[in-house]
Amino acid sequence: MSITVRAPAKINLHLGVGAPREDGFHPLTSVYQAVGVYDDLTVVDADGWLVDVAVSDWMDRSHVPLAGDNIVDRAAALLAAHHGLAVSGDVHIEKAIPVAGGMAGGSADAAAALVGLDRLWGANTSDDDMLALAAQLGSDVPFALVGGTALGTGRGELVEPVADAGTWWWVLVPSPIGLSTPEIYRHFDRLFPDAPAVPPMPEPLLAALAAGDPHALAAALHNDLQPAALDLRPDLERLIAAGESAGALRGVVTGSGPTCVFLCESSDQARATAAELREAHDVVLVTNGAVAGAHTVTYV
Ligand code: C5P
């Protein structure tokens, strides 16, 4: 049996970050959107357990932990333990989501592994159990299962869909050099010692989504981690200015960065913006959202 599961990248339309909790995680008020950049994970029957990862040339492979420490190994161990099964399978991952880019690529792989291995092993895990296992694997993994446009609370792992009337066009500019998420959060703590216990709800952004209004959404995009990312990577400030002067409505850093995302009014505006940014940047992607969470695309 061979099963291929496709899992989307996420961008943050809003990322509100509070002061660190006792467990070290930060309380979040996040609005996630799944966009059409995917990792494909294929699982095949096998007696043993093997994971291999193919990344594009331009990605920062140093951030992909291999040799038993990959998030996919942890997903398999957790699902197997939940059902009292032994871990087995050959897993191949084709990465298109930028590595260490702030787009939850590792979380997408974990979500895809849960969906694929559940099917391969005939485990029939309930949706609630899948979400609970996902939350143990990482803050963004439940969203990678759910997809669409969703509000994330807690440390980001509690997700619920929000009203979204738009088709949103994005230009994404990943960076060949990744940023470490824990390092960005530590820098956030230094910059904002008075962060609130619970970050407030982004009401204007939720209203813009429900109305499908790109100009209102552009004005409301916000990321509390952006100052920390720009401090460590001042070049991103120039990139954001370049995208906005190329025609995008607004550019922001997504998640913990360094990927920058540009909201455009239409597919034409996104293509024109991307063409101009390609003069100075090797990898510039045009995509749209919202798209589905982790789902099976082939099953033979
Ligand atoms: O949950 P996840 O494994 O994706 O988190 C990676 C790291 O990002 C954590 O170890 C922590 O340093 C930081 N993080 C955080 N608060 C969150 C989510 C992540 O501090 N809500």
Distinct compounds present: cytidine-5'-monophosphate
| Average pLDDT reading | 96
Provide a count of the helices: 10
Return residue spans where pLDDT drops below 50 for at least 5 consecutive residues.
none
Q: Which of globular, elongated, flat, extended, rod-shaped describes the shape?
A: globular
Residue share in helices? 25-40%
Most strands sheet: 8 strands, mixed
Helix-and-strand structural type: alpha+beta
Looking at the chains present, what oligomeric state does this protein adopt? Answer: single chain
N-to-C CA distance: 6 Å
What percent of residues are in strands?
A: 25-35%
**What's the alpha carbon Rg, rounded to whole Å?**
19 Å
Q: Count of DSSP E strands? A: 12
Q: Which H/E pattern describes the elements?
A: EEEHEHHHEEEHHHEHHEEHEE
Secondary-structure blueprint of this entry?
Layout lengths: L1 E16 L10 E17 L4 E6 L16 H13 L5 E6 L10 H16 L6 H11 L3 H6 L2 E5 L4 E4 L6 E6 L7 H11 L11 H9 L2 H7 L1 E2 L2 H7 L2 H11 L4 E4 L6 E5 L2 H11 L7 E5 L5 E5 L1
Parallel strand pairs: 1-8, 3-4
Antiparallel strand pairs: 1-2, 1-12, 2-4, 2-5, 5-6, 7-10, 7-11, 9-10
Helix pairs in contact: 1-2, 5-8, 6-7, 9-10
